[in-house]
Amino acid sequence: MGTTASQLSKESLSEYQELTFLTKQEILLAHKRFTELLNKSEKGDPNVRIPMNKINSLPELKSNPFKDRICCVFSTSEHKDGSLTFEDFLDLLSAFSDSATLEIKSHYAFRIFDFDDDGTLDRSDLEKLVNCLTGETEETKLSPDEMRQLISNILEESDIDKDGTVNLSEFQHVISRSPDFVSSFKIVL
């Protein structure tokens, strides 16, 4: 859309409202938070990208165990470095907004949990997912037997076609039975 990072025109604001689940006030707040992460020299650049480490410094993401994956999934960088443009940042906030649909939220949750980006959640993805949730310290890390049992249980419950992986539709089926998923899958600035 070519909006400079230091100002947001009424036209851009209207376009962003049509393309996201965000309200005008949420877009303006997102723009303010985005520009606060910029150096002075970057503020006039419409194509500026904020590095993943700066995005992850936001209080809303700082303690999220999936913060790096979130940035990578929403980044349009050809370098696959997790850096975000303002539009990428809006897409992220839109998917995590209260107004986003279950279908949108589950689609992005699946992509975040698909660590190898192969379109399925296999044992390796599930192990990484569990480690992100439990932490990888000696006190919290599951034993190999506990991990194997948990992943077997997850696949038993989720893998409808019994191919040893969870695809998007199987994942969405599981999520549809989880009443607190939509309310917990959110980021509010």
How would you portray this structure in words?
This protein has about 190 residues and is mainly alpha-helical. It has helices at about 10-20, 25-35, 50-55, 60, 65-75, 85-95, 100-115, 125-135, 145-160, 170-175, 180-185.
Please tag this protein with its features.
189 residues; mainly alpha; 0% strand; globular
Please give the radius of gyration in angstroms. Answer: 18 Å
Low-confidence stretches: none
Shape verdict? globular
Helix content: 40-55%
Query: Cα distance, first to last residue?
Result: 23 Å
Concise account of the structure shown:
The chain contains eleven helices and no strands. By secondary structure, it is an all-alpha fold.
Question: What's the topology here?
Answer:
Blueprint: H1 10-19, H2 24-36, H3 52-55, H4 59-62, H5 67-74, H6 86-95, H7 102-113, H8 123-134, H9 144-158, H10 168-176, H11 181-184
Helix pairs in contact: 2-6, 5-7, 7-10
